[in-house]
Structure formats: structure tokens, C-alpha cells
Amino acid sequence: MPWMWIIAGPNGAGKSTFTGPFLEALGQTNILRLNADEVTAELRSGDPASDQNALNLRAAQIIDSMVVQYIDKRQSFLVETVLSSGKYRDDLEAAKAAGFKIGMVYISLYPPELSPLRIHERVLKGGHAVETATAIKRYHRSHQELAWFGACVDHLLIFDNSSNDGEPFLLFEANPEITFYRKGANPEVDKAMQAAFSGL
Predict the structure, then answer these.
(1) Where are the domains of the chain?
(2) At a CB cut-off of 8 Å and minimum separation 6, what does 190 contact?
(3) For labelling alongside 127, which of 39, 114, 149, 196 has CA 20 to 30 A away?
(4) In this structure, what DSSP letter does residue 2 have?
């Protein structure tokens, strides 16, 4: 049975860093992995004079097209996303209709201001920038979308990566039994899960 994995969370949460070890733990190191930042970097190397926003848009279009292709082929894949919009809702529903299992790993931060701070640290290491106001808006939208996606996926894992000193820790799991490991540690996740699952 094919799987669609969504690795999601606000900018700067550490999605890409987390993804490799997670796939190794799953024994899925050969799964097709879609990352818009990596596609943008490839486009930049071939077209260094292009506007960054134009490259970002082209990368997003390429990723969206590949998601559709893999669903049509019933081929397992993983896509990384900030989840700041509902654009993957239709893809999730199409994948389910095609017989996919859906897994989501969400990496959160708290408070919201950590997102632009982590982005700044990333820029100092050569990563790409995101304006502070944009990062904060995406942070809130991402957690709002988490409520919808969390209620729809077959396996949900939510981690908190707020600490600079430790590894991300598991906050929540639904598989489908619901376990809230650290309720109260991240109010944004608490709010999203209360919206996704009644009675929490």
C-alpha cells in the first residue's frame, strides 16, 4: 500500500533536519522526497540571475506537479511543506481515493517569535531568508491547517523543537488511538488538536 507522508511545520522549525533520521527510523530511506527549497536551489544554480520570488513560484509548481504524478502512479512519496495554506487538501483527498495511507509529521515551535529567530540563524549559515512578518503569518496559518490535516491523516506525529539545547520531543500521536504526551507544553498545538479532535 502506498504512503503519502507530509512533513510540515512553520519556517525554521527544523523540518529538513528532522526528515532524514525520521525516514531512517521508518526504514524508508529510498522514498521519493519532495522539497521546494532544494528545487529552488537547483533552479538558482541553472539561472543565477532570476528573481527569487519567480524561482520560488517555479519550484512550488514543480513540486505540485510531482505530487499529482506520484498519486496517479500510486507511488509512495514524502513532501515537506510549511502548511501555510490548504493547497495539499485536494492532494490528500485524491491520495486517499487512490488507496494511499496518509502520514503526517508536524514540527512545531513555541512561541511564534521563535520562527523568525530560527530563520535568522539559518541565514547566517547560508540558508534562505523569510521576512519576519511573513514568518509569523505563516506560523499561525500553519497551525490552523494542522487542525484540518490532523483530523484526516491515518498516522499523526507532532513534535516540539523549541529548545535550542535538546532534540525535538514528541507532543502528540494519533495512530488512530490518540495520545497527548505533553499537553500544555505548546499552546498552539493544544489549540489545533482541540479543533481536530473533540473531547481533548
Answers:
(1) 3-196
(2) 183, 184, 200
(3) 149
(4) -
